[in-house]
Design goal:
Metallo-beta-lactamase, Chain A; alpha/beta; 14 strands; about 25% helix
């Protein structure tokens, strides 16, 4: 799909006949941000770039940050919260985090007009969107993945996790769109320039999923309703889009499922979920 012009309708999901519209604004260790909308409610999951950079990527896809209703934060690492405070203040947006993440992220956010706490395992709603946060294994205080549902359509975000637990797999089943981590190629990580302690952290149970881990996960959770898979949080040093894509192709039928690879320095296309 070619980049949309700036004349894109304000409610692309409604006018196109889709339940959810998703755009990966950025994905990787230098910053993460995911836009989700059902045309009535629009949210940003993480804001790990500067406010200016996120606004620029919104404009690239004809989207308007002033139409956002909220920001949801998965965990306190800088590549997920850098722009949260700025965007919250600039557009008067509430910020949703769990209590432990709130404490850990406080110094990096500045003043926020409205902070809303959620608990992992407890569904909450932002207008028309139903969000269910679930616990994941990562070296943060209380990191969360999310499923987001609207009118029968369901998507899941599961990045920044070192292992895939049974609970994570249970939440990723029956989704129409999956955003899953494919961080590194194990051999590239082993042979690469990172110090040994960093390599151990990345490959640990609180680090990041490899291409192979992502492939195993997709084999277990794919089903007939799955429409899109996005491979996310790729390492620019220890992976390539080609390697991640080829590994994922072993797990899913690309004739029936659209496979996307999210990039760090490029805004993704709009993905429409029926």
């Amino acid at each position: 799909m070619r980049p949309m012009a700036l004349s894109l309708p304000q409610n692309p999901a409604l006018e196109a006949g889709y339940n959810l519209v998703v755009c990966i604004l950025a994905s990787g260790s230098k910053g993460n941000a995911i836009y989700v909308s059902d045309s009535r409610t629009s949210i940003l999951v993480d804001a790990g770039l500067s406010g200016v950079a996120i606004e620029r990527r919104f404009r690239q896809r004809g989207l308007r940050p002033e139409n956002l209703d909220a920001i949801i934060v998965s965990h306190e690492h800088a590549d997920h919260i850098q722009g949260v405070g700025v965007l919250s203040r600039r557009y008067n947006l509430p910020v949703y985090m769990n209590p432990k993440t709130t404490c850990a992220a406080e110094s990096g956010l500045g003043d926020i007009k409205e902070l809303v706490n959620f608990e992992c395992g407890a569904t909450f709603h932002i207008n028309t969107l139903s969000i269910h946060p679930f616990s994941i294994s990562h070296d943060a205080t209380d990191p969360a993945g999310f499923t987001i549902s609207q009118n029968g359509s369901k998507m899941a975000i599961a990045t920044d996790l070192g292992i895939v637990t049974s609970m994570v797999k249970s939440h990723l089943k029956e989704c129409h769109l999956l955003i899953v981590e494919a961080n590194h190629d194990p051999q590239m990580l082993f042979d690469g320039p990172y110090p040994w302690p960093t390599k151990q952290r990345i490959s640990s149970r609180v680090g990041h999923l490899s291409n192979e881990d992502s492939c195993h996960l997709l084999r277990e959770v794919q089903h007939d309703k799955l429409q899109h898979v996005v491979l996310a949080h790729l390492s620019e040093t220890n992976n390539t889009p080609q390697k991640a894509f080829a590994q994922a192709c072993k797990a899913i039928n690309v004739n029936h499922v659209q496979l996307h690879v999210a990039r760090q320095n490029e805004c993704g296309d709009l993905i429409y979920v029926r």
